[in-house]
Each structure stands twice: as structure tokens, then as C-alpha cells.
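Form 7-S
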Amino acid sequence: MSTSEYTKVYSGNFILVTRVKDELEAKGIVPIVKDEGESQRLAGYGSMNQGFQEVFVHNDELDNALAIVEQVKSEMETTSSE
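Output:
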């Protein structure tokens, strides 16, 4: 069983991930964005998940990051339903 110092807090398309990333950075949290599709493209392979990204944060910042992600998701849902 492997342990990691980072935990995934959000996944989605490029635009939504950028919004979450910006909010985390504004609060002093340094996220890591993983883009498997871009990595595969750069390596010369095709990918079915272009534009799909994942956001990871260090476990020390996990509680704060989850609260921020929930806030952003709530704001996005409110905006989309108007």
C-alpha cells in the first residue's frame, strides 16, 4: 500500500480547474494540477480525456483546500442555475 503526501481535491475540465486553482492560490495553498491527456499528447500518444485535469494539494493543507473547493463548487452551481 503506497502512501502519498498529496490528495486529489477536485477534477474537471480546464476552465473549472483553473477557477479552483486560482482560489486555492489566493488563499496561499499551492495546488498541483495533473493533466494526463496533455502528458500523453506530449509523449506522442492519443488521449480520450483531453482537457480533463485533476487538482492535488499537500495533506497539510487538505482541510482548508476542501473547504475552498466546496465553496467554489457551490458558487459555480449557483451561477449555472441562474
